[in-house]
Design brief:
Strand content: 25-35%
Strand order of the largest sheet: 6-7-8-3-9-10
Number of helices: 7
Structural class: alpha/beta
Distance between the termini: 20 Å
Helix content: 25-40%
Bound molecules: adenosine-5'-triphosphate
Radius of gyration: 18 Å
Largest sheet: 6 strands, mixed
Order of helices and strands: EEEHEEHEHHHEHEHEE
Length: about 220
Amino acid sequence: MLSLQHVSKYYQVSGLKNFVLNDLSLDVDEGEFISIMGPSGSGKSSLLNIIGMLDEPSDGYHYFADHAVHQLKEKQRSALYKQYIGFVFQAYHLIDELTVYENIETPLIYQDFKGTERRAMVADMLDRFSIVGKKDLFPAQLSGGQQQLVGIARALIAKPKLLLADEPTGNLNSKQGEEIMELFRKLNKEDGVTIIQVTHSEKNAEYGSRIINLLDGRIESSKQL
Ligand SMILES: Nc1ncnc2c1ncn2[C@@H]1O[C@H](COP(=O)(O)OP(=O)(O)OP(=O)(O)O)[C@@H](O)[C@H]1O
């Protein structure tokens, strides 16, 4: 599904290159559920942002679904992202001024789905996540766990093949976190969604099929579960 080859990311600080990712190579097959771990500052979010095309590497090759992403223009990359990728953030990133319904609907508007289609798809998602009763509320009127469910529903609404999650349970209590992890497991096993999550939790990491440990912008170790 995706391949990173000799990817580096650096920032110039007083004329020196400060490497955040250092000659990192990674292949991900469709159907995998990968957990990325590592100490703070080891490059986990930077790696996820490059995989998710929110950021570009400084060097190296990036292939996704038979496209050479490193050669694409911004507009083509964004089209590829919209077609294939859903992103879940630790801080939810919901739009405060939009209702639950409208937040979930947003990606479909960007993708030019028709009104009737959009209504059916959002209704489906609300139902699936048991949040029909919350559809007219605003994010501030929801608990953290509910906000994250809305964030996940929004990430999944356009049926992405790849779900990326940056500490999706970071702001949740352990029960809410477990529910989200069970949901990820189901998405991966039953719907075949490929998942890559960044986590600090050993327990959450073990929901994955492979754990990758980063250290100083390199893959220090990789363990198949
Ligand atoms: N725009 C930037 N300019 C300079 N340095 C940056 C920039 N963005 C990130 N970095 C640096 O990149 C390094 C890796 O950051 P990253 O967020 O990927 O780490 P992380 O492993 O996800 O950490 P955490 O677990 O704390 O979230 C950090 O040292 C950070 O300071």
